[in-house]
Every structure is written in C-alpha cells, then in structure tokens.
Design brief:
about 150 residues; mainly alpha; two-stranded antiparallel ribbon; 5 helices; 2 strands
Length: about 150
C-alpha cells in the first residue's frame, strides 16, 4: 500500500464483515416495525380528529388523512409511516453502532494508513454496505407488509 509520496495513490483499507450477521441484525430491527404500525393505526384516528377540519399530515411522509379517509388507506399510511426516513435512519444508526467496533478493530491493523483514509473507508463502507443493506431489507419488508410482493 504505497502512499502518494511513495509514488502510488493511497488505497482504502479493505473492510470485511459477516454479511449473515449484518442481515440478522437488520432483520431483528425490522421485526420491531409492526409494533410501530400498530401504534400508528391506534393513534392516527385521534390525530385525524384533532386536525379536523384540516387534514392530518402523516409525519415523515407526503400523505394527508381526513375523517373521510377509508380505514384501509389509514392502515396503509400507518405502514408507510412506520417505514419512513426517520425509522430507516434510526435502524441504520443502530446497526452501525453494533458493527463499528469490528470495523475499527480491522482498521487499527493498518498502521501505515492515515486516520483520514481510515475514516473515508468507514464512511464508504457504511454508505455502500450497511445503509444499502438496511434500505434493501426495509424495502422488501415494506413491500411484503403492503402486499406488493
């Protein structure tokens, strides 16, 4: 691994993680989402009533519900809201906190690599591996829950 001064372009250290373990961590987090859906189904009618005559804007979505919204659409909004950005970001952060120590341990073996390059490797790994895995598994779970599979 030659640095720029050694005539080479610095390369990012390789990070390896057990993808089965990563997927299991994500699955465990996603398994809690139906509780949020139930909570939304219970709370949204009250929120709709409180907002009346204005529509209730479902948090973290572009959906609006009114007293005339069919129950099936309220349920679908409850599902979409439970899988929205706020939940995705929380799951990504939770998973990252669980795998980051393993990654730091691997990167600490690269004594000749600067902290800036190590951080860049971590950022790329989080974005390209952890975040993409969370998004893919959440999209799949959302489709199943919505009945789109």
């Amino acid at each position: 691994m030659g640095g720029i001064c050694a005539g080479g372009i610095p390369t990012l250290p390789e990070i390896n993680i057990d993808t089965e373990q990563l997927n299991e961590l994500i699955k465990t987090a996603i398994d809690e989402i139906p509780d949020k859906v139930r909570e939304n189904c219970e709370n949204f009618p009250t929120e709709i009533a409180n907002a009346d005559p204005q529509p209730f804007n479902v948090p973290d979505t572009n959906l609006s519900l009114t007293k005339d919204t069919p129950d099936q659409d309220i349920a679908m909004a409850a599902i979409v809201a439970a899988f929205a950005t706020q939940t995705r970001d929380a799951i990504k952060e939770s998973i990252w906190k669980q795998v980051e120590p393993q990654i730091d341990e691997q990167l600490n073996e690269y004594n000749e690599v600067s902290d800036k390059i190590k951080q860049s490797a971590k950022d790329k790994f989080k974005e390209n591996t952890v975040d993409k895995a969370v998004d893919a598994m959440m999209d799949e779970a959302l489709d199943k829950m919505k009945g789109d599979n």
